[in-house]
Design brief:
The protein has 3 helices and 11 strands. By secondary structure, it is an alpha+beta fold. Strand 2 and strand 3 form a beta hairpin. The protein starts with a helix and ends with a strand.
C-alpha cells in the first residue's frame, strides 16, 4: 500500500520524459507512400484534488515534404498538393487522463504503465495525426494521409 502523497511523488519522478518512437507513412504521390519517424516523450502529472493522472506528450517528426503530382485515368483523377518541408510538432498535449482509486492498495506502477500504453498507441497517434494538417505552398491546409504503423515506448531508457 502506498499513501497518496508518495504516489504523487513517485509518479512525477518515475514517469517524467519517457521517450517513445512513432513510425508512420504519408502519401507521396498516387499509390506511393514514404516512411517517416517521430520522436516523442510523455510525462505524467497527478492532480490529487480530482484523483486523476494526466499524460502530457511532446512530439517532433522527421521533415515531411512532397512535390505536386497529378494522376488521371479513365475513371478517376487524383491530385496530391505540394507540401513544402515541415515537421509535425506537438508540445504539452494532454493525450490521456485516468482516475486513480483511493486507497492505493494495487500495483500503481502497472496502473500508470497501462494508462501510458493506452495513451501512446497506434490508435491514439492516428487520431492525433488525423487532426494535424500540414500547410501547403500558399498556407492552406493539406491532407498528407498520415498512417501510423508502429508506436514503441522506451520504458527502460
Amino acid at each position: 500500500m502506498v499513501d497518496e502523497f508518495e504516489f504523487f511523488r513517485k509518479v512525477r519522478a518515475y514517469y517524467c520524459m519517457v521517450p517513445f518512437v512513432v513510425s508512420f507513412k504519408y502519401k507521396m504521390s498516387h499509390k506511393v507512400e514514404k516512411a517517416a519517424t517521430a520522436l516523442g516523450s510523455f510525462s505524467c502529472r497527478v492532480n490529487p484534488h480530482t484523483q486523476i493522472v494526466e499524460y502530457i506528450m511532446q512530439l517532433n517528426s522527421d521533415m515531411i515534404a512532397r512535390p505536386h503530382s497529378e494522376q488521371s485515368s479513365f475513371l478517376f483523377s487524383s491530385v496530391c498538393e505540394e507540401i513544402p518541408p515541415q515537421a509535425v510538432r506537438v508540445d504539452n498535449h494532454l493525450i490521456h487522463s485516468a482516475r486513480y482509486p483511493i486507497p492505493i492498495e494495487y500495483d500503481w506502477q502497472k496502473f500508470v504503465m497501462n494508462g501510458a500504453e493506452e495513451a501512446i498507441s497506434v490508435q491514439s497517434m492516428n487520431q492525433l495525426f488525423k487532426k494535424w494538417k500540414l500547410l501547403g505552398v500558399h498556407g492552406q491546409q493539406v491532407n498528407a494521409d498520415i498512417k501510423v504503423e508502429r508506436v514503441e515506448i522506451e520504458w527502460y531508457h
